[in-house]
Write a structure and sequence with these properties.
Number of domains: 2
Mean pLDDT: 91
Strand content: under 5%
Number of strands: 0
Radius of gyration: 22 Å
Shape: flat
Number of helices: 11
Length: about 220
């Protein structure tokens, strides 16, 4: 295999490092990612990366913030529930397109200007809709954790469906369940199998949350 072409020192930049790191994370997963491997991909020594990033966590934050900058801004001229839907759907779509984002969001405290921009947009919608500060903050966190949890589950289930061994294991588990001991689970297995992902399932959960918010808003009004 030919040796990697070395990146001239004067062309190395935070943007190039972030883009290359993202490519590696998407190709091999965040667990296998290393600064040494990134340096090799760039054709530089590992110490060159520390000119731009203090450590791997610092780089993780930069990659995450780069991805969060791809979420479209909050749409204007529509009702607040539709604005919330747009933000949540945008985050889910980005996570499905870049599965490494799920780990980057879950693994470290949120920081970065683009991440703050997304939070500002959603919090601004909630405050403009009339929610008090505490309700807006709690709702923001609830919506974020719903999107993160539901989409991470969807990504994991999609990966397992591609694995023949996992499919056999799941089928064996289902077939081993006694209808006497687990009558409802056995009865609803076909329906449960349809709830592991997809737009319809995601929107179902999101609509439940929004319906509760609207009822609470009407009751307090």
């Amino acid at each position: 295999m030919p040796a990697k072409t070395r990146t001239p020192r004067n062309t190395l930049s935070p943007e190039l490092i972030v883009r290359t790191a993202l490519d590696l994370m998407e190709g091999q997963g965040t667990d296998a990612f290393s600064l040494r491997g990134l340096a090799a991909e760039l054709g530089v020594g590992p110490m060159a990366l520390y000119t731009y990033f203090r450590n791997k966590d610092d780089l993780y934050d930069a990659v995450r913030d780069h991805l969060m900058g791809l979420i479209p801004p909050v749409p204007e001229g529509v009702a607040w529930p539709d604005q919330v839907r747009a933000v949540c759907r945008g985050l889910r779509a980005l996570m499905l397109q870049h599965p490494c984002l799920a780990q980057l969001l879950a693994g470290r405290p949120l920081s970065g200007h683009e991440t703050a921009r997304v939070a500002e947009g959603l919090l601004g919608v909630l405050r403009s809709a009339g929610f008090d500060a505490q309700t807006a903050a709690r709702t923001h966190t609830t919506l974020f954790t719903y999107v993160l949890g539901a989409t991470s589950w969807e990504i994991q289930m999609a990966a397992e469906r591609q694995d023949p061994q996992e499919r056999r294991r799941l089928r064996a588990t289902i077939e081993s369940l006694s209808p006497t001991e687990f009558p409802t689970v056995v009865e609803l297995t076909p329906e449960l199998s349809r709830t592991t992902g997809g737009d319809e399932q995601f929107d179902y959960g999101l609509d439940l949350l929004l319906a509760g918010l609207q009822r609470g808003q009407q009751a307090s009004g």
